[in-house]
Every structure is written in C-alpha cells, then in structure tokens.
C-alpha cells in the first residue's frame, strides 16, 4: 500500500516479476484485500491479459489482508507501534513467522527500517541496519552504504558497513573478493574527518579487500587509480546527500540537453543505465532476513527489479553470510 | 607557478583577462622571471600577437620575481614556512604590503589556505577560512560552502559559513537578500546529523534569509519547494565530496551520450554551463583580503574567470562587508 504510485505500480510490478521468475516462486500482496483484488482484476483484464501474462496465473499470487497503511508522512517509530495491522507490519511479520522469504516495499523508508528492526531483529553486534544503494557508474555499478539509515556514525560502524557491503557485492552483484573504498576527501590516509581517519586505520586490519580512501570523483567513474571499486563506505548523512544529488543530476542534464536540441529519444535510451529503477531496490543490510527498500516513486519496473534483488538475496543466503561474517569478527575479538 | 598547466595557462589567462578588464587594471605575474618572460614572449609573438591582444601592452603587466615554487604534493604548512620565496608566499605578501589588491592561484590549495591565513590573517572570530564554490544548476548558479577547507565543523562554524556565503552571493553574484539553505537529509528541522540539527536552530535566529534545510536533490535543481537557493551551507567534508562527485558526473554522462551517438559538438555546447572553468575561482572567505583558489587543472579561460572573481571581490569591498557582518554579530553577542 506504500509508495507514490501504489497500489497500481506495486501490483503491476509483482505481476511482471512473476513472468520472469521461475514457476516455483510466488508472491504475497499485502494490503487491503478489496483494493488489491480490484487492481488484479484490472490488470488481468487489461495490460496483463492473454499473452502478456506469459502463463502467470492467480495461483502464484496470494493476497494477505492488512487493513491499515502507514503514510509517507507518519513518524516511523510511532506508526509501527500504532498500526500493527498495517501492510508494512503484517508483511514483515509473515517473514518472521516463516510464511515468506523476503519483503519488498516502496512505502515509508523510516517505518520500514523501524519495523524491520523490531520484527526481523538485527544480527548480533549491530545497533542499526544500513541501506545499501546501487550507483550506476561509467564502469560497473557500485554499492554505496550507508545511504541514509545512520547519520552520526562511529568508525566501528563504518567498518560494519564495509563488511555488510562486501557480502552484498559478492552475493547480489556476483563480485569476487569485492574491493572496498572509504569515501573521503583525498586518497591519503590522513585525509578526512576524524571518524573517517579512524575508520581508515581499522579497515586496514579488517581482513577485507580494502583499497583505501576514494574521492567523490571516483564514484561516478566506478574506479580510482588503484582499480575498480565495488563498495563505497560512508556515513548515512554523506551517502544520502550524494544519492539524492545523483538522482537529480541526470534530469538536470537531460533538461539542458533537450534545450540544446538533442533528440529526447536518444537521451532516454542513453540514460537508461542511470535510471535508479533499473537497479532495483536497496536492501536493509544487517536485519535477520530480507527487507528491500524500493524508491517511493517506484514504477512497476522498479518494483520488479526490487523483487529480483529480494530473490537473489534469499537464494544466495546473503543474510546467513552476513551473520557468519559478523560472528567471525566477534570471535576474533574475543580471541585477541 | 602552480597548477597542472602552469605557467602557460596562467600567463595566457592573465593576458586574456586584461583584454576584458578596464585599462586601469594591471596584473602582477609572480614567479621565476625568466620562465614568465619566456611565456610572455611566446604569447605576444604567437596567439596574443597583433589584433588578438586588443591593445593590451606590457605596461599593464608586472613580473615579480619569486625563485621558489610550492609543489602540488608539498605539505601545506611545511611548504609555506620552508619556501618563503615561493610564488605563493611572495604573491600574497604583495597584498599584505598594499602592493596589490587581490591574489589568484591554481597551485596547491592547502598551501594557499595556510599562506593566506598566515600572511593576510583572518577576520576576528574565525578559526579557519571557508572555500566557496559555485555549482551550476538548472536555474541560477548556487554558492556551496565550505567545499573543503574545514572537515570537522561545529554548528557555530556552519553559521559563520552562512554569513560568509551570504556576503559572497550578494557582492559577487549580485543576489539581493540571498537565501541560505542548510544541506541535510530531509527538510524537517529534526533531520540531519547532530551538528546540522544544532546549526538549523542557530540559523533560524541568525538574522539571515534562512530557508531551512535543503537536500542533495535541491542543489542541481537550484531550488527547493520554498523557492530558489543562493547559498548552500555544509561542512567541508560533505562539500568536497559533493563537489568532486559533481565534477565527475558531467564527463561520465558525456561518455554515455557519445557512445549513444549524440553528436559531440552538440554536447559540448550544451554542457558549457556545467564546466567549472566558466564559473571562475573559489574565494577563500574569511581572510582579510582577496585570495582566489583556481582549479589545479585551470585552463586560460578558468584563470581569466578567476581573475574576474578577484576583481569583483575587490571592487565590491567584499572583505569589508564580511568584516562588518562578523563584527555586528560579535557586537550583538556582547549586548545580549
């Protein structure tokens, strides 16, 4: 029920994803049954009728009733407690009860984070989850985290983000021994604010493929002079500012180029790679389970891609890898 | 002598600027006399010969000997003290001695900052200067500060940046009652890290045209839903990351569009507005005098524009306005 174009975009995205997923996959649509049923009816008798459904039938879709909905303007912590029958809370509870494997939402991000922490719980040693976002670059896409869940971070937390991001890059993006860069204002270890300088030292001893500091310019390039970058670590304040900045730059440039007479179709095709909806949802890393944040303005295509991320997270056992990675560190800490 | 394309680009930019400035303006070229004289000779007998000089003669150019040069890799504080006869130190000393009105360099930014603080001194109440950078946007250009001089900032320092930026926007960009936004991760006052939340409260009572928090997406847009933005305030870590990110996005998009078959000439013309060299140098705000930082990769055009910023700063008495603005606040503080 959450998201600027819900429930239509969400239901349509779910149907699209079923046409691409193997037939053993099913989807639960959580929300007001009557509203969802109407959307399903419209889609199956409209754009999803006949051939376009590619054989996907109602048997792969379960509608789960959740009479309440958390609004985009609701205060996260309050909403989660005061709306126990919201689609957000009910949907996540299905996973905690073993009735589903992953959860995707385009709703209130803060509420999804709060509900995921309360219902799915966090891995031991974590105080908060991190949001991992994919940035398109001139090379391969890069994982940037945290992109908004944690604003005041300690150096230890930045190291945790590095561990979470490395597992994500390996399991979801298929990167082998992912390279981890620390976002700073110069490549030298002594460049940066006090937290970043401390994190740099900790990351050198963290057992990760740490390639040192990376700068703002290295992110759109997807590489620094020490090679390609898979994971960029930063606090959630910087990450969120840069993410929103990035999202706004492409439309700005399209506007400039259109005014200069470049054909719109050509632009659209060229800039498809820069469209966030191509890169699916952003996983909330650190929770015990799979909770994927999709952009509030998600199109059906973005929802479909977010579901794809959820499937890859479940099938690669990303959550267990994260748990093992964090446990190994805790173990080392005890041994030392 | 500083900058990736010095001394050629610097000398050529100085000559270009003289063709546009009124005839009462003169330029001092500070560095190794023999090297500069050779450049001048080459330019006056080559691209700057005849008509293209538009009547600019050697009488408007003074060469000031400075045998040493600070390298891009020199440690700022050390270099300033160990190279007292460097072009950086000699050039700034001319201003302190009343022999020039403004200083422009494309050299080592850290050294320029250190030398400016030592030689020109700071206005009372400031601990460090701030670097103000112009960001091209979909609307009018926006001043972003600090963009790299101060990494760990207090809320008080962010308020000082707001005051410095407002004077800059008024004096250099000609904005009337400039609007000041605080860069954060949501428009609500309670969004942001702890320093930003504190700065938000202080800015509401600072007597500026404070329009509240602005987000990453508002910067390329040049506006938020409360209207156009003239000044964006952030700490130097965030500002530097976003600045370098921005500088790298345009080339990245040009690459994507070229591969998609958009004609390069059309792109170049369209993206001219996004070229930092069009927007001249970044003033070091807070020093008693005029010290303009030009990009290390400055072209002659960028140098020319940086000199233009220096001239506007001198002629608008920006430095005095800043001094008065900071004094008024100190006075209020005492009265309260």
The number of helical elements of chain A comes to 12
The stretches of 5 or more residues of chain A where confidence is low (pLDDT under 50) are none
Query: What is the assembly state of the chains in this entry?
Result: homodimer
Greatest interface (CB-CB under 8 A), with counts per chain: A-B, 51 and 51 residues
Percent range for β-strand residues of chain A: 5-15%
Query: Taking Cα atoms only, what radius of gyration of chain A do you get, to the nearest Å?
Result: 20 Å
- Overall mean pLDDT of chain A stands at 91
Strand order of the largest sheet of chain A: 5-6-11-7-8
Which class best fits the helix and strand makeup of chain A?
alpha/beta
3D structure, described in words:
The structure is a homodimer of 336-residue chains. By secondary structure, chain A is an alpha/beta fold. Chain A is 45% helix and 14% strand. Chain A has twelve helices and 13 strands. The first copy, chain A, has helices at 8-20, 33-45, 76-82, 87-96, 109-119, 155-171, 194-204, 218-221, 236-259, 264-270, 300-315, 318-335, and strands at residues 27-31, 61-65, 103-105, 130-131, 133-135, 142-145, 179-183, 209-214, 223-224, 227-228, 231-233, 282-285, 291-293. In chain A, the strands form four sheets. A five-stranded mixed beta sheet of chain A has the order 5-6-11-7-8, sandwiched between helices. In chain A, a hairpin with a 6-residue loop joins β5 (133-135) and β6. In chain A, α1 (8-20) packs across α11, α4 packs parallel to α5 (109-119) and α6 crosses α12. The longest helix of chain A has 24 residues, at 236-259. Chain A starts with 7 loop residues before the first helix and ends with a helix. The model of chain A has no long low-confidence stretch (mean pLDDT 91). At the A-B interface, α8, α9 and α10 of A face α8, α9 and α10 of B.
